[in-house]
Amino acid sequence: MLRQLLIASAVVGGLAGSALAVEVGDDGLHKQDWFSLTFKDVAEDIQAAKDEGKRLALVFEQRGCIYCKKMHEELLVDPEVRDYIQANFKVVQYNLFGDEEVIDIDGETLTEKTAGRRWAVVFTPTILFMPEDVPGEGTAGEAAVATMPGLFGKQTFLNMFEWVRTKGYDGDEHFQKYHARRLEEKGFIDAQTAN
Known about the structure:
This protein is α+β, with helices and mostly antiparallel strands. It has helices at 2-19, 42-51, 66-75, 79-88, 112-118, 140-143, 154-165, 175-185, 191-194, and strands at 55-61, 89-95, 101-103, 109-111, 126-129, 146-149.
């Protein structure tokens, strides 16, 4: 009986582990079924996000990126992270070395890879958080209200999305101070550690 329970536990554990595997597209990028598929017209996407009561986040990834894989398989499948982002953000995926057409805020037509260079994206994953309203001029890189360069742990990752959603960038509380305060509020650190 004990042997059967152990085998059943191993099978269920194996199935649960495989549930975290995320589909990989033909372009080699991991896919979330809740990411938005758009024509990659940044101004149009900012407006569409606003119309949905959300903010636009552009996530740059590349084939074979181990940190992108980790982001998809550990963070973006975590219900707390996934549910918050889905409710508050329209996420559009870009391939740092891709050839899909992109239309920048200033109307210039680019490829994903030239957009990445133009917007100063140098590694993956990188998330550019767009403003609530379409700027009258400039590029998406210049318009970004915040950038998350690289992969961070769950709390830093989630707190950055929260900070952008609550327009922390418009206030006097730098993200690092906001992050420390949120960690303290959630009981992850005490006041002494935060300062």
